[in-house]
Protein: Ester cyclase
Organism: Taklimakanibacter albus
Amino acid sequence: MTSSEEAKAIVRRNTEEVQGKGDFVLFDQLFADDFVDHTPQPNMVPDKEGVRGLYRSLREAFPDFHAVIHWQAAEGDLVTTFKTYHGTHTGTFLAIAPTGRKIQFETVDAMRVRNGKISEHWGVANLYSLLQQLGALPRR
């Protein structure tokens, strides 16, 4: 059993060290082999390999990709995090050629941590705002 504080620390390490620094050795330690993503991004498989691919593609498109965590809340083994991602678009992302633009977008996600590993994910990201910043959608 993982306590709420331990679960929050595991999710924070994923955000800061895996997503923010590209530590994929740590990724393998933090994610359960039977991980399930209940809200996968388009064209991504909803498992550990799918999320690894998503993280790699984000780091390739935005090499300085990182998040500012605004808050986390936990109830048992379920951790909810509100954060803003930041980066510079220097690689292709969603078939959009590099623009060199600095971006930011908000995300809320929930991750279940069982036996010290992230086992499930649900999330919502403001990708509409991101696509506007990259020039793929008109600004209002």
Remarks:
- Strands lie at 31-37, 66-75, 78-88, 102-114, 117-125.
- The mean pLDDT is 96.
- The helical segments are 4-19, 24-30, 48-61, 127-133.
- The radius of gyration is 15 Å.
